[in-house]
Specification:
Elements lengths: L3 H28 L3 H30 L3 H36 L6 H27 L6 H5 L4 H17 L5 H32 L1
Helix pairs in contact: 1-2, 1-3, 1-4, 2-3, 3-7, 4-7, 6-7
Length: 206
């Protein structure tokens, strides 16, 4: 049976894979590279396989140990695995919108791209801190992302209003607007799950 530290290392690998998928989705958005879609779909399958493997190991470990602290950590790690799997799903969702954008030749305004870039960078930073903390087995490394009290939902709401106004002004089409708003929402969801993982890592430290 795997011990909890070896399982944590696998979770760190899973987080690193999710981070790679996140960066690939961003590149596909900027470069209109559909080849990246195939790569991310392959990575998503790997991520799903890791989720099943790690969850099974956590269940076996949780049933075998009697120490309450170890059982509690097992539950937290299981929650983290679930968040990482969802991040992979959102990466795929973003890429599906990018594919539609490319195939339908939809155009986003320069302002829209800049707004997406702001959200992407904030989310990438949060996700990177989570991956690094897992690799180093040091929950304190997620402190910075949790100190950031910025409300991404508020920022997304502001960007949604701006983009809807651009649609009304004829700057972008209704279909392009819908694709862009989807991407904003998925990006905010990835940010939320990255911060949730960070909070869970600090719980393990206690």
């Amino acid at each position: 049976m795997e011990n909890l530290d070896s399982i944590r290392l696998k979770i760190a690998d899973m987080a690193a894979l999710a981070f790679t998928m996140w960066q690939a989705a961003h590149r596909a958005f900027l470069e209109h590279d559909l080849d990246l879609l195939t790569r991310v779909l392959t990575d998503e399958q790997k991520l799903n396989n890791l989720e099943k493997e790690i969850t099974s190991e956590l269940v076996a470990f949780g049933r075998a140990v009697t120490d309450k602290s170890e059982k509690a950590k097992t539950l937290i790690f299981a929650d983290i695995v679930g968040d990482l799997e969802l991040i992979g799903d959102y990466c795929k969702d973003i890429l599906e919108r990018v594919q539609i954008k490319i195939e339908e030749k939809l155009l986003f305004s320069d302002e829209a791209v800049k707004e997406y870039e702001v959200l992407y960078q904030k989310t990438e930073k949060a996700l990177h801190e989570v991956v690094y903390a897992l690799k180093q087995d040091n929950p304190d490394l997620v402190g910075q992302v949790l100190k950031n009290q910025e409300h991404i939902d508020t920022l997304v709401d502001e960007y949604r209003l701006r983009h809807n106004q651009r649609m009304l002004d004829g700057v972008c089409s209704p279909m392009a607007c819908n694709m862009f708003l989807n991407i904003l929402d998925f990006t905010a969801a990835v940010y939320y799950h990255a911060k949730k993982v960070a909070r869970n890592l600090l719980k393990i430290k206690k």
